[in-house]
Amino acid sequence: MLTIDHVTKTFFPGTVNERVALNDVSLHLDEGDFVTVIGSNGAGKSTLLNIIAGKIAVDSGDLLIDERSVKRMKDYQRAAYIGRVFQDPMAGTAPDLTIEQNLALALRRGQRRGFRLGVTRARRERFQQELVALELGLEQRLKARVGLLSGGQRQALSLLMASFTQPRILLLDEHTAALDPQRADLVTRLTKSVVERDKLTTLMVTHNMEQALRVGNRLIMMHEGRIILDLPEAEKQKMTVAGLLAEFAKIKGAALDDRAMLG
Ligand SMILES: Nc1ncnc2c1ncn2[C@@H]1O[C@H](COP(=O)(O)OP(=O)(O)OP(=O)(O)O)[C@@H](O)[C@H]1O
C-alpha cells in the first residue's frame, strides 16, 4: 500500500548545519495499518511524514503509494491521497470561514479547479451527519466561524476534514499534543473510531508512549534518522511504557557501541 524504499534526507548537506533527518529508511505499510511513531526529538518523525505528504523532496530512495512512485507527482495530485492533521489546532482549518465552508473546502481537496464555497442542501445534510459522530454539538453550529471554536473542537474538525475524502493515507503529526488531557483523550478516541470506520491506513506521530501503545496495530521507534524498533501487533500488545524505555536505552547503547567500535 505504502512503501518507503531506502529513503535518505539530509538538510544543509556539506555545511556545519548538516542534519541527517532520514538515514536509509525503509518501511512498508499494508492497507489498513495504523502505525504509531515514537522517538526522541530530532529523530526524523516529522520529516518522515513530510516526505510522504510531498512537502519535502527525498535525496535518494523512492516512495510508492499503491505501487506507484509518487516522487514526481504534483502537489494537488498527492493531496488526493493524503489527509493530515498537525499539532497546531490553527493549522488544519481556516478560522475566518464557517464550519460548513471549511468542510466544503475539505471536500474539494485534491481537485484542480478553484474553490467553491457554496454549500448545497445535500452537502449540508452530509456535513451534519458527519459532525454528529464527533459528539461535540457542532452539527448545530454549521454557520459559526471556526475561529470561535476551542482547540479540541478544531482538532476534531481537522480530523474529520482530513478523513473526509477517504484519503489513502492519514498522517497525524502529534495532533493531540497541544490539547489538555481531557480533550486529548477525546481526539484520541475520535481518531480510533474514524480510522476504524473508514479503514484508513494511518501513521500517527506522538510523544506520548502510553497513547502510542493504546492505539494502532503496529509501533515504530525512530532515533537519529533510523527506524530502530518495529513492533507488530502481538508484540505491541504485550509491551509497556517501561519496556519501551528499556528497549530504547538498549538499542541506543548498542548504536553507540557500534559507533565506538567503528571509530
Ligand atoms: N526544514 C528543515 N530544515 C533544516 N533542518 C531540518 C528541517 N526539518 C527538520 N530538520 C532537522 O532534521 C532532523 C529531524 O527533524 P524532525 O523534525 O523530522 O524530527 P522529529 O523526530 O519530528 O523531532 P521532534 O520530536 O522534536 O518534533 C533534526 O535534526 C532537525 O533539526
Description:
The chain is α/β, with parallel strands linked by helices. It has a single domain (2-231), classed as P-loop containing nucleotide triphosphate hydrolases (Rossmann fold, 3-Layer(aba) Sandwich), CATH 3.40.50.300. Helices cover 38% and strands 23% of the residues. The strands form two sheets. It has a six-stranded mixed β-sheet with strand order 6-7-8-3-9-10, with helices on both faces. A four-stranded antiparallel β-sheet has the order 2-1-4-5, covered by helices on one side. Strand 4 (60-65) and strand 5 (68-69) form a beta hairpin. Adenosine-5'-triphosphate is lined by residues 11, 19, 21, 39, 41-47. Residues 11, 19, 21, 39, 41-47 line the site of adenosine-5'-triphosphate.
Quick description:
The chain has 263 residues and is of the alpha/beta class. The chain is built from nine helices and ten strands. A six-stranded mixed β-sheet has the order 6-7-8-3-9-10, sandwiched between helices. It has a four-stranded antiparallel β-sheet with strand order 2-1-4-5, with helices on one face.
